[in-house]
Amino acid sequence: MIVKIVLHGRRVVGGRAEGEALVTHDTVPGWGGVNPVQGIITETRHELRGVSFKDKILVCRGAKGSSGWSAMYHTARLAGTAPKALVFNEMTTKIALGAVVMRVPSVTDLDRDPLEVIETGDWVTVDGDSGIVEVEKRKT
CA 91 to CA 95: how far, in whole Å? Predict the structure, then answer.
């Protein structure tokens, strides 16, 4: 049985993408905390250290680090290792610019906390144009 949950938020970058969710309750690092060519988080104490965000719907609290954040994720886009979309809680210039340079659908300011609703492995559709995030959970 599939349970579908619909979240409503605010568009950051338009477009539509779907894929498997990769969720972290930590903020996502940029300069010095990711390997953009491999598409993995390398920060030592991050809960997703060594995990690839390539082709995932990255769900996080927000971004941390310097303005180099967007350069790292722009490099990931050029390398073909960027996430398919972003869903996040805390709007900052780092994550907004990162979403723009990656050219991935992105939504924030959701009516429910995505970190409480979405789990790694859920199938997520992000409609950046309408600010809608659909979450499919498989229940047995």
Answer: 7
